[in-house]
Write a structure and sequence with these properties.
With 258 residues, this protein is α+β, with helices and mostly antiparallel strands. The protein is built from six helices and twelve strands. It is elongated and about 70 Å long.
Length: 258
């Protein structure tokens, strides 16, 4: 009867190396060799694209606070936002083509702060008339928190930038058939992408695979801006500005440039 001998150590080592190489080659495409891409995650990566988007929307709605930065394109223009938002208000800056201003809202009280140029009429336009009182008013308002009256046409427009629900509802929208995209890492957190329409033309949403399924990045449909979302559920102070830095017209604001 022939003698059965074990593989020598060198042969066993070669087999182990070969098996490891095969596993490495298959892991990315097949998640083979016992590796689970969802191991240690919150599990949303196993859901359908529509379910992932639904989880992300629900998590965002339930969150107490968020920081929103990036570019937001609407029919009214292009806005660069850097806002911290929570259910009782928000604070941060908005930059347009012509100007930059700060917004602060505490409950229903809304304040704006900007440089003198923001408050000056644009005297460079044809037919524009420069008025001395405009210059004087602009100088007085520079770097002051100007309270925006509720009856002012600007109130609803600017309040939207400080409203967590309004901004997120307008931002987190995908068009077309939803599909699962690539897995990436954003700000150190593993994510899974949900894309709308063919080639992501309907927008793309990156959702965290760690902790709660927070939305971390949104590329809006049609190239209408890319926004990062961070500091979810991290509280921040939100108080009215000091009275000595506040101007309250009690009526419609002076015309602002841009």
């Amino acid at each position: 009867m022939p003698t059965v001998t074990a593989f020598p150590p060198a042969a066993r080592a070669r087999r182990a190396v070969l098996a490891g190489a095969v596993c490495a080659g298959l892991a990315a495409g097949l998640a083979g060799c016992g590796e689970d891409p969802d191991e240690g995650t919150n599990g949303v990566g196993k859901l359908s694209a529509a379910e992932i988007e639904g989880k992300a929307r629900a998590t965002a709605k339930a969150a107490t606070a968020v920081r929103l930065t990036g570019t937001f394109v609407t029919r009214g223009g292009t806005y660069k936002l850097n806002m911290r938002l929570k259910n009782t208000g928000g604070t941060g800056s908005v930059t347009t083509k012509d100007s930059t201003f700060e917004l602060l809202r505490v409950e229903d009280e809304l304040f704006m702060k900007a440089g003198a140029d923001f408050w000056r009429h644009d005297a460079t336009k044809p037919g524009a008339e420069f008025k001395k009182e405009d210059e004087e008013a602009a100088d007085k308002l520079e770097d002051k928190y100007v309270k925006v009256p509720k009856g002012d046409p600007a109130y609803d427009q600017f309040r939207g930038f400080t409203d967590k629900s309004v901004l997120l509802d307008g931002l987190l929208g995908l068009n077309g058939t939803l599909n699962k995209g690539d897995r990436e890492t954003i700000t150190g957190m593993r994510t899974i992408k949900v894309v709308g329409g063919e080639d992501g033309q309907g927008g793309a949403l990156d959702v965290s695979l760690e902790k709660k399924p927070y939305p971390l990045r949104m590329a809006r449909a049609g190239g209408a801006g890319v926004v990062q979302l961070a500091d979810w559920d991290k509280d921040f102070p939100l108080t009215p500005p000091p009275k000595d830095l506040t101007v309250d017209y009690g009526r419609q604001l002076p015309k602002a440039r841009g």
